[in-house]
Batch of 3 targets.
Target 1
Amino acid sequence: MTRLHRELLADLTDQIVGGQLAPGTRLPRELDLTVEYDVSRGIVREGLRALEERGLIEVKHGRGATVRDPGDWNVLDPDVAIAFGKSGGGHLPADALACLPFLETPASGEAATAATAADLDAMRRELEAMRDAGENSARHRDARIGFHRILLRTARNPMLTAIGERLHQTIPDVASDAHASDLSAHQRIYDAIERHDPSAARDAMDAYLSGLGARLGDVKARRR
């Protein structure tokens, strides 16, 4: 996938997921998109095919491309999930959060049983990255997703890893004034895994997810 293709795909995905292009909206014509993005018609067609594959648009001959209903979107596609995380994503972060206790709470217990020294080193590096991020919410978020990716891999279930990472990508950045508490919550999860204490790891994960749910609720309330 070329850089220009990725930029076109990312921008249109962000506009669709963020609501600037609402369901039922017709996208500009191919020729207009080539002018707007300063790319070839081939790049535009590749981008439209990619959007169609992700369920974001429907393309009909002679009628162009139309934004589909959110129920048709492949929300676990990496590009779509990332767009949700950047936009705040409407109801999807809350939906993702409702799924995570069924995935990550038991996975934390499994990780506490299975963690090797290499797994612990990798998790520690992500904790350091969260600490080093300071007030940079994007860097903090990247490190947070990395921590959960490693935790899920440590549970030795590739399907769980793929689904869990996508769910985390839909969740917006944590406000900079909550970085310290977010880091502390992850430190408690890590400490329990390092002690190989499955019960404490599950409890620490439950506490983290509950706090994350409360913060998401605060964010939604402020946006109303």
Target 2
Amino acid sequence: MRKTYNIVERRLTEVPDGPCAVTIFAIPDETERRYLIDELKVDEHTFASALDPDELSRLEFEPDHVAIIFKRPRNYSGADQFMFKVSSAGAFLFKDRLKIVIPEDANLLDGAALVRVTSLTDVVLKLVARSIIHFREHLKGISLVSDELQKEINKAMENKHLINMFALQKSLVYYVNAINSNGALLEKLKNNAGKLGLGTDEVEFLDDLMIENNQCYKQADIYSNILASLMDARASIVSNNLNVLMKTLNIITIAIMVPTFVVSAFSMNVKIPLSWHPHAFWIIMGLALLSVLSFLTYWRKRKW
């Protein structure tokens, strides 16, 4: 799927056909792949990196273009089952055009990324900025979901809630790694600002992005550490609750077995004491009750 844009009055405007400054290839097919590799001389490995979710962010200088690989969060869906995934995107910056490759049908150029655009390098920076904002929004969502899951776990220790918590914890590990990778990319962009032809405003914007990405990284790292600690605590709580449950069941079992033994002893088909007594039934019931009370008293005295 291909979308084309032009910069018109400092704003990215989608154009149906004709010459364009920015082109987005979402889930590129074989024809688009061959166009980028054969005609535009995009390195095949770099092109594959733009579609690889495990690829790290990086900056590469080719003879006729600059390749920028950055990380972004994938759009969440209910089928992911509380697993927030990370995706990659590739921006191939030529002298007069920008080609963007993404592995999913996502709206990259929305909101602030569409307005106040001065150059193609500005578009790239705003793509990274949108990615940082997207990460921050997902972190807020993860925090809210985590709070709800904790409430559910407090109500009922079901495996599905614990599995969902594990999925969130795994997601945060990937997010921390991806945000840190974007931070390394931003540093490299700043170090090569002159080579990229970044203006003063773009360098200042890049400095702001580095600060925001660092804050986002710390936030993700804090969430990850808190959730990991909570998972350890939850595991201890589950183990302790299981011990308490087994203790309660043992008390109930023994409390039932003691009077059962008394009653069984007086119900054998042999001549036994009190068989002639008119109140034998009530005496036996009293002995059974007394055995239960004696057992509970002994249990409490030992503080078991």
Target 3
Amino acid sequence: MSSVAKGDLTIMAVGDVHVDRADPPSVFEHVAPLLRQGDIVVGNLEGLNCDRGAPIIGKIEVGSRHLRSAPDNLRALESAGFNAMILANNHNMDYGPEGLLQTIALLDEKKIAHSGAGRNLEDAHRPAIVERNGTRVALLSYTSVFPPAGYAADENTPGVATIKVGTSYQAPENVQYQPGFPPLVTTTPDPVQQDRMVSDVRQARQLADIVLVAFHWGVSYGHGKVVGYQKELGRAAIDAGADLIMGAHPHALMAMEMYKGKLICYSMGNFVMDGFTSSHFGSDTMILKCHVRNKQIVKCSIVPARISAQWQPTLLTHEQSVEVMKKLDSMSADFGTMYSMDGDEIVVGGPRPGTPPAQRGLSIEPHRGLPVLVDALLPLPYITKKLRGIYGKESDA
């Protein structure tokens, strides 16, 4: 354990974890000594650990598949010190309620906390509470990426915690002059489900000293851009009391944002996706370290790693870490996020002084009363002018 003073601890978090091999602990052999130094170690369980259930019908994701591995693969999590897992994603109902409930039972047996899925809606929205060294940490998780049927938990049915998102496309006014000009794209979270998430965070804030919120969100297949609803949900969670936002689904590292002094990791990338190779999977990955003092996160740093040909995360040299820092700096330029080296770790801070609020995501106030963040390959002044004409004003977000 890394804790020294009462109330101090280290939270470590990683992205997607799917272990499927004959010797499960071997996948973490290069990083387990570091992970075991964490007091709370969290990852996104990308796929079930079960041998029950049948593949659900109607999964229509292009290029996707039903994903699970044998229950014995959970030994890998134990060996590396994982004690909390994120369950809300687009694979953890692939084998129906039976597969999900078996996975949950196995995690419970191993005393690995979990959030984002359960026997019913209330269970799926209940925070996992982990206490270490006198500090209580709550974990909530949600997915906005899921099949249209058979995935979301409801009052009496097992499933995952979801936040639906609508997408609309609007042709720019100069399209007659430049056919094919990119559209304005608006992604809008379901207001009822967003409000439920906000309420969950507020309630978790009453139960714990630190609240972690995980979102399975964004666009995969190498898109590489943070889209509007991600900014809206991440910032709304922090406004409600979250201390850290952990994103997954794009399978590659993406931008980070410091919002009101709290970190939003829009995509933490793959950590282990055993046996999977894809052109849009990033080989760079990371271990996020959150240093807690007096029951508050006082510093966030990144330990960069790279996924080997054997799908094992491996720590980088100092020079390689500097190269990762430069990539993150470029990806996060719109948010003004600052990165600096502290030994072999990358410290995250910001936003950089002088970063215009509008540059961190254009926000407008539509008639329904919720912020809408617009994505387009258009100059910011053009979008601002266009939206001011539609909605009458522009606000800083």
